[in-house]
Amino acid sequence: MGFLFVSLGGALGAAGRYAISLLPVKTGFPILTLLTNIIGAAMIGFIAGIVSDNNEVSPNIALFWKTGVCGGFTTFSTFSLEAFTLFENKAYLSGGIYIFLSVICCLAGVFCGKKLSMLIR
């Protein structure tokens, strides 16, 4: 049953990620992937915060949101390829900024999501 919940959530997450990629942003900096990863990090932090102290949340619901939706939505593999490509194209400053912002902002997103979840409990 867990595979069904993960699959359904994954489809929803992937569709959300694709929708963001369609935004009409033209830049050499992978801002839409960065934005997707920050949103995904905040989302998974929020969900983890809700699930961690709530025995009323079904394990299947947690699988749907954390593994399915967030797993389908976040784009770390794309981030890695884009960072590598920036370095490969000798855009060292952009590559370094991209990696730094991705790590710091996504960690901050998880922190903020968890704090937000505490506010609504």
Q: Could you characterize what this model shows?
A:
The protein has one domain (2-120). Helix content is 82%, strand content 0%. The chain has five helices and no strands. It has helices spanning 2-21, 31-52, 59-73, 76-88, 92-120. α1 (2-21) packs parallel to α3 (59-73), α2 packs parallel to α5 (92-120) and α4 (76-88) runs antiparallel to α5 (92-120). The longest helix is centred in the C-terminal third of the chain and has 29 residues, at 92-120. The protein is globular.
Distance between the termini: 28 Å
Task: State the total count of DSSP E strands.
Answer: 0
Low-confidence stretches: none
Series of secondary-structure elements, N-terminal to C-terminal: HHHHH
Largest sheet: none
Strand content: under 5%
Shape: globular
**Number of domain units:** 1
Evaluate the radius of gyration: 16 Å
What's the mean pLDDT score? Answer: 94
Helix content: over 70%
Q: Number of helix segments?
A: 5
Query: Structural class of the secondary structure composition?
Result: mainly alpha
